[in-house]
UniProtKB/TrEMBL annotation:
Pfam families recorded: Aldedh
InterPro entries registered for this protein in UniProt: Ald_DH/histidinol_DH (IPR016161), Ald_DH_C (IPR016163), Ald_DH_CS_CYS (IPR016160), Ald_DH_CS_GLU (IPR029510), Ald_DH_N (IPR016162), Aldehyde_DH_dom (IPR015590)
Family the UniProt entry places it in: Belongs to the aldehyde dehydrogenase family.
Coiled coil: none
Active site: 268
Positions of the Aldehyde dehydrogenase domain: 36-498
Protein name listed in UniProt: Aldehyde dehydrogenase family protein
Keyword vocabulary terms for this entry: Oxidoreductase
PANTHER family the record matches: ALDEHYDE DEHYDROGENASE-RELATED
Length: 503
């Protein structure tokens, strides 16, 4: 048994630097902040300045075990709480998170370098929305009655799986966590989240806030590195389901470990999402759609980023020029500054990876790198992980930039001449997460939408994941769906059949 809570709540704060310091060194286990058992910590760095703003607990198997034990114990009582009441509690969490949107926005901007106005505040708002949505679904955990024989009552019931292990990445950590935690909790599971090394703070704060409403142990969080802290979570015998968002490579490791225990796993992995623009599109709307589709305000760090843009040849040159002009007008700068459109890359490693792609593209014969916007001039930001967005033209379909996920502000554009050819090119990818089509000919658009190999296809828009709409990829982009009622039922419950012979 843990002594709990070991640490008092952290005061609300709109000063993200103070809040980051206050959150330093803790996991959140069994209803309270607890320091890591081995005392080790790692640096959380502000990517806009390179300065350390906090230390995160560097968890290992012992911390994971404490969190899972707490969750396993709490889950038994949680599963007995009427489903609608569980939902009401998750709904109450949403209300609490709404009161903290500004605080969470500043904290996530500080640790990830995502601009406050264009990205961080949006994410924090959507997080509250996701908890609100799932909070209303408690009474949807229904079973069926099955015709079997007149004297036999045959019904199915939905039961929780037990302890869910959730492993999350750093790009939209609060939202990607919410998509796992909200349905898992409403369905009667307890959760242990392993946060991403690059962004452990805002999610920790959310965990604490929600623990003011939820019973202790139902929602725990550990921070640490993947192999030392993530792997023991997947491997823990009491963890009965794993849900993961991140890279394909790590997703396969997680899936193999889950297979060893024969537990179900949901994987949300990468993407190389095509955007297909026909000459009859609404030109200006589509140019601005390309900017949002490519998630330039998130430095392209999105699994659904439109990182391959195919434009029908008659408007290709004009489209490239218009896009370049529009991205040029975006302001790069301090993520916490309201004027900033584009912040920083999350880490040195990611910056090096993105630069590698840009160098390779620039060195390719026949390719042109259209470098956009301008580096910030503020000397305080000179060590910041800024990178100018790049639009590439003239790269062939076999280029690594066309085939691999870059996860940076880099998109490749190519002209096309007919719908069948562009469809084949769009589908010629290991990935199948999202796609968008831009045309006023809905007959063509719908036909292609049916034939694109992707989990989400949008025509004349390219929104991020939305509560209530199933979200998840095909091919190497993942297994299973998130964000919807079906996702909660299929991925966080199992169906039990009960038969009563009334003789
Ligand atoms: P990653 O997949 O290695 O990390 C994601 C999460 O998995 C982190 O919490 C990490 O600690 C954990 N993890 C790592 N190794 C693990 C293991 N052996 N067992 C259990 N958990 C483990 O992704 P990373 O290294 O942050 O980024 C690399 C690339 O992955 C990016 O450049 C991008 O292409 C892709 N990516 C895709 C994301 C998406 O939304 N689908 C999100 C983040 C990254
Ligand atoms: Mg990794």
């Amino acid at each position: 048994m843990l002594d709990r809570p070991q640490h008092t709540p952290v005061d609300p704060s709109l000063d993200p630097f103070a809040l980051a310091k206050a959150l330093s060194g803790f996991h959140f286990i069994d209803g309270g902040y607890v320091p890591g058992r081995n005392g080790a910590t790692f640096a959380v760095v502000n990517p806009a300045t390179g300065i350390e703003v906090a230390r995160a607990a560097e968890g290992d198997a012992a911390d994971v075990d404490a969190a899972v034990q707490s969750a396993a114990k709490a889950q038994k009582a949680w599963a007995k709480v009427p489903a609608r009441k569980r939902g009401a509690m998750v709904h109450a969490c949403a209300a609490l998170l709404k009161d903290h949107v500004e605080e969470l926005s500043r904290l996530i901007a500080l640790e990830t370098g995502k601009a406050l106005r264009t990205e961080s505040r949006v994410e924090a708002g959507v997080v509250a929305d996701v908890f609100e949505f799932f909070g209303g679904l408690g009474s949807e955990l229904k079973g069926e009655s099955v015709p079997f024989a007149p004297n036999v009552l045959s019904v199915t019931v939905r039961e929780p799986l037990g302890v869910v292990g959730a492993i999350i990445p750093w790009n939209v950590p609060m939202l990607l966590m919410a998509l796992k935690v909200a349905p898992a909790l409403v369905a009667g599971n307890a959760v242990v989240v392993k946060s991403a090394e690059e962004a452990p703070l805002a999610v920790l704060r959310i965990c604490e806030l929600m623990n003011r409403v939820l019973p202790p142990g139902v929602f725990n969080m550990v921070s640490g590195y993947g192999p030392e802290c993530g792997a023991p979570l997947v491997e823990h015998p009491l963890v009965r389901k794993v849900t993961f968002t991140g890279s394909v490579e790590t997703g396969k490791i997680v899936a193999r470990a889950a297979a060893n225990k024969l537990i179900p796993v949901t994987l949300e992995l990468g993407g190389k999402s095509p955007m297909i623009v026909f000459a009859d599109c609404d030109f200006d709307k589509t140019v601005s759609g390309a900017l949002t589709s490519m998630r330039f305000t998130r430095q392209g760090q999105s699994c659904t980023a439109a990182s391959r843009i195919y434009v029908e040849r008659p408007i290709f040159d004009r489209f490239v020029t218009a896009m370049k002009t529009a991205v040029d007008a975006m302001v790069m700068g301090d993520p916490l500054d309201e004027k900033t459109d584009i912040g920083t890359i999350v880490s040195q490693d990611q910056l090096a990876k993105v630069r590698g792609f840009i160098e390779e593209g620039t060195a390719t014969a026949g390719a042109t790198a259209h470098v956009c916007s301008a580096m910030p001039s503020d000397p305080a930001l000179k060590k910041g992980l800024f990178i100018q967005p790049v639009i590439f033209t003239g790269l062939g379909p076999d280029s690594r930039l066309v085939r691999e996920e870059i996860f940076g502000p880099v998109t490749v554009m190519a002209p096309f001449d007919d719908a069948e050819a562009v469809l084949a090119e769009a589908n010629d990818s290991e990935y199948g997460l999202a796609a968008s089509l831009w045309t006023n000919n809905l007959k063509v658009g719908l036909d292609l939408a049916h034939r694109l190999e992707a989990g989400l296809v949008q025509i004349n828009q390219n929104l991020v994941v939305q509560a209530n709409l199933s979200y998840g990829g095909v091919k190497s982009s993942g297994l299973g769906k998130e964000a919807s009622l079906e996702a909660m039922l299929e991925h966080f419950t199992h169906k039990k059949t009960i038969m009563v012979n009334m003789g």
